[in-house]
Write a structure and sequence with these properties.
Blueprint lengths: L2 H21 L19 H10 L3 E4 L17 H15 L3 H9 L2 H8 L5 H22 L9 H18 L8 H10 L6 H13 L2 H27 L5 H11 L2 H6 L1 H5 L5 H4 L2 H28 L6 H7 L8 H29 L4 H27 L15 E4 L1
Antiparallel strand pairs: 1-2
Family: Belongs to the terpene synthase family.
EC number: 4.2.3.-
Keywords: Lyase, Magnesium, Metal-binding
Length: 403
């Protein structure tokens, strides 16, 4: 066949080729994601994983930011370790997962969070904390049916919220006690520990306290659902949107809602619902999520999750400044800004309560606990084998975290 015959055929082939591409768009080139990256990731998360793969995220010693904040451990620390292990054994049947959760040393975290609490309150708070870690892992660990199916996840949230509402004694209709008994007898394994929480709080808190706790748990579960949707789609939001979602899904606010119970105080509702108290909560949550995210980023990326402050900040950097060092500076600035907001709120709360000596003491105890909460997260995150930061830490306290 001569060249004159071939030329029209080639043109025809090209036309067919481009027509097919218009109907079936070309997939991204294989090199968009390295072969060693997570094949299950999609969308922006897949591209971001390839960009971050093997890079080193450096952090200064963040204890320097919190050097003036208190850190202490509860004298029941060893007993708490045994309590946590027994709780995990009640609800975790997978031996590999059980071993990993025991290594996390949640008992140490409880000891740092509640250095002054007495044993009855510690039992309730520990049951809640272990429950929320296990409940959340079911959704975001990536190795369960719930974590890989949005419809199953939505059903999981709905059922969990219904159970929480019932076990907190918030159902006012006739036969509520019988419903609680039936609920306790037929619990999903992941909700078993919450029965202990509900029982303890029904006996030691008033309805307003439990309603506040429930509202924060509801927001937590809704936010976990939104976060899960982003994970499934591989979408990466703006930093502002991320902080809004993560402030709910990090699960700190329900813990703060237990504070007056843990301290055996009852602040007036005028204090609990005032603007400075809400600001104190907000900044406590923000500092907690920043610390949680920077220390867990290596673990989360290894589990194919890019929904973390570090990747989100990196993705949202301007092209000429898109480095992990830029992210580090952003993290430091965000922590310092949040701490300033916290201190301003603490000062305003102190002034509001200055006319009543008892309320003033209770407000200061609440503020001090929020500081313990943050330093506890910081210290535990550096120590816990859950995140492996001991292997990343230098003698000067700084960290080099390979992603």
């Amino acid at each position: 066949m001569n060249s004159q015959t071939l030329s029209p055929l080639f043109r025809l082939a090209e036309l067919v080729h481009y027509k097919l591409l218009s109907i079936f768009p070309r997939k991204p080139l294989a090199q968009t994601v390295k072969p060693t990256a997570h094949p299950d990731l999609r969308g922006d998360a897949s591209i971001l994983a390839a960009q971050l793969d093997g890079k080193t995220f450096r952090l200064p010693d963040l204890w320097k930011v919190f050097s003036e904040w208190p850190l202490a451990a509860n004298p029941h620390a060893k007993r708490l370790e045994g309590l946590v292990d027994s709780m995990l054994e009640r609800i975790i049947t997978n031996e590999k997962k059980l071993k990993a959760l025991k290594k996390a040393d949640f008992g140490r975290l409880m000891s740092l969070w509640y250095p002054d609490a007495e044993w009855p309150e510690l039992e309730i708070a520990t049951a809640y904390s272990v429950w929320i870690f296990v409940w959340d892992d079911e959704v975001d660990a990536g190795d369960t049916d719930v974590s890989n199916d949005e419809e199953l996840a939505r059903a999981y949230y709905r059922k969990s919220l219904s159970t929480v509402h019932c076990l907190l004694g918030l159902d006012e209709s006739e036969g509520a006690e019988e419903r609680i008994a039936r609920e306790e007898a037929s619990l999903h394994p992941n909700m078993a520990l919450f029965a202990d929480v509900g029982r303890g709080l029904r006996n030691s808190t008033d309805r307003i306290q439990r309603e506040r706790f429930y509202r924060e748990l509801e927001n937590f579960m809704i936010s976990v659902g939104v976060e899960h949707g982003h994970r499934m789609r591989g979408s990466i939001p703006t930093v502002e949107k991320y902080l809004h979602i993560r402030s709910g899904s990090v699960g700190c606010a329900p813990q703060i809602a237990l504070t007056d119970h843990m301290l055996k105080i009852r602040l007036p509702e005028s204090i609990m619902e005032c603007a400075p108290m809400k600001e104190l909560w907000k900044e406590t949550v923000v500092m907690c999520l920043i610390l949680n995210d920077v220390y867990s980023v290596q673990k989360e990326i290894a589990q194919a999750s890019l929904f973390n402050l570090v990747p989100v900040m990196y993705k949202n950097c301007s092209p000429e400044k898109q480095t992990l060092d830029t992210v580090t500076r952003g993290v430091e600035a965000a922590l310092q800004e949040s701490m300033r907001g916290f201190e301003d709120a603490a000062k305003a709360l102190g002034e509001m309560a200055s006319d009543d000596a008892q309320v003033s003491r209770d407000v200061q105890a609440f503020i001090k606990w929020c500081r313990y909460f943050i330093t506890g997260v910081l210290q535990w995150s550096l120590e816990s084998k859950r995140y492996g930061m001991a292997d990343c830490r230098h003698k000067d306290g700084s960290l080099s975290i390979v992603l």
